[in-house]
Specification:
The complex is a heterodimer of chains A (354) and B (310). Chain A is of the alpha/beta class and 354 residues long. Helix content of chain A is 40%, strand content 19%. In chain A, helix 3 packs parallel to helix 4, helix 5 packs parallel to helix 6 and helix 7 packs parallel to helix 8. With 310 residues, chain B is an all-alpha fold. Chain B has one domain. Chain B is built from 14 helices and no strands. Classes of the chains: A alpha/beta (354), B mainly alpha (310).
Chain lengths: 354, 310
Amino acid sequence: MYKNFLRYIISALFLLGLSVQANADFKVGFVYVGPTGDHGWTYQHDEGRKAVEAAGIKTTYVESVPEGADAERVIRQLAQSGHDLIFTTSFGYMDPTNKVAKDFPNVKFEHATGYKREHSNVSTYSARFYEGRTLLGHMAGKMTKTNVIGYIASFPIPEVIRGINAMTLAAQKVNPDIKTKIVWVFTWYDPGKESEAAQALIDQGADIIMQHTDSTAPVQVAEKAGVWSFGQASDMQRFAPKSILTSIIDDWAPYYVERSIAARDGTWKQQDTWHGLKEGMVAMAPYNSAMGSDLVKEVEQLQKDLASGKTHSFTGPIYDQKGNILVAEGSVADDGMLAGMNVYVKGVEGDIPQ
Amino acid sequence: MSFDLNFIGILIGAIMASSVPLILAASGELITERSGVLNLGVEGMMIIGAISGFALMVVTDNLFLAVIGSMISGLIISIIFGLLTQSLLTNHVATGLALTIFGIGMSAMIGKNFVGIPGKEFPLLFVNLKENIPFLGPILFGHSIILYFAFLLPFLTNYFLRKTKIGLIIRAVGDSPTSASNQGINVTLVRYSCILYGGAMCGLAGAYLSLIYTPQWIENMTGGRGWIALALVVFATWSPIKVLIGALIFGGITILQLHMQAVGLRIPVQLLSALPYIMTIIVLVVISRDSRKIKLNTPTSLGQIFYKEK
């Protein structure tokens, strides 16, 4: 009842806004899965939004929108209230975004990390985070003493599995003895659960903690336990100054500004964007000097090679857990294979939850 | 999984730490319910305690003040519940639910400015002993003072309810407010006090989360623990010691399922995630089968509105 009541009030407010602001300026809306202060995933998207705002375009955002029925309602409301371009910034918004896009052919939609573009007004974009994971794997393989890498995973979707595989392949290359232990927490953002998972992995002998979740809790646990960790999505260094070796930073700002201006000027076209280190959508935070200057140099070189295309994160031969060949020697995985990746590579322990 | 003794000790220590908020909140709610008041606002009072504790820690830089402040704010928000249910005689269930919704919204609003600030390190006791004694060290030492308090609390509560005069009065009020009132007991006053006590304990449980367990403020960070505490009280048939057992089982299986995953056991992860809930209910139902004892412990007037004719 309470929810319905709230719904009426919100819709009433939106209608009010609509009537006052009919034919108003060009507006861009953002839908976030977490709070803007998560200092991870959503925080970086909001930095991108601020850049759009700085470019002189009006923006609004709705934060902490659960992936599910609520998402469609929020996206629909943004579309109804006169937004011309809407960024939906989480994988779980994929179906709701396409559903709403069908009903609002004049509104442009941009969905992050998804693959469905069912209507001509839906674009998708993502970053090649796996390139960052390759760098992390290299550092992890060199830095681990116990040869156990702990990995906190969110949901079994290709993006997460790709990250696990890229990291494991890179770590194996420098240290064939490493093992990747994975704990699935089935959430993007639950600090309590994330820190319990980090602690469990540390107790199981992991001396490197990696996360594909959005809160700073795991790096804080790692700092306390005196093991190495990596920040996720934004530079989390100040939450664990000793423990963090680097962070993978998502830099959405240039893309958001470019697409917003294109939509405003009428040059927006449907596309699928997948940018990485080369374009700067994936960036690395300063490397922790505690890993020694030699390793820092090595990693910096690898970063350059990944950016220039000289090295690829998924270079064959790559085998799956059962030993079947996935990528033949001398070739690299194509984008189609990467986008739909749903098997672990050799060396990862356990099964992917179905 | 390495099965050396010290590892098991570390595991038990982690389980104890994760069950603390449940023990605190459930012990507080138990006293409230024993006086005949059903307060479903546990989650709301916990989250208010969590944000107040964290905000005070940031503003005053004093952990002691933060802990006390979280208890006071839990207490203050429970006054609202007391006023409505005891003085204005509203329905307990509806008022409690409203309190939870209010608490979650209110905490998110206060918390806006405290998101993303790193917490302060909470002092842990006997850290030396923890590291130097195998097995028992990580179980008994290296915890925060609140953990020790939480583990004493069920026993104190048990003693208090069974052996003290005030405990007897609370039980009398919960079983038959009319008879108690005829004996000259101020039922409303007793129930108010129990509600306030419950509020303070829930506040403390929240502060444990935001100051010690995951030292930071996150919207909705109690994550349903208040509801679990409520369920624990019922499934433990209002016995403080069984609340402790239930909380440990819940915490235990939560932690163990993560370890089972890390080891790579081939059990569906979804089943593992559901295990804590299933096991806790099964175990508590099994150990609480004696129907005579249930009757003895159940506050007969639970959730009923008491109206004294003048």
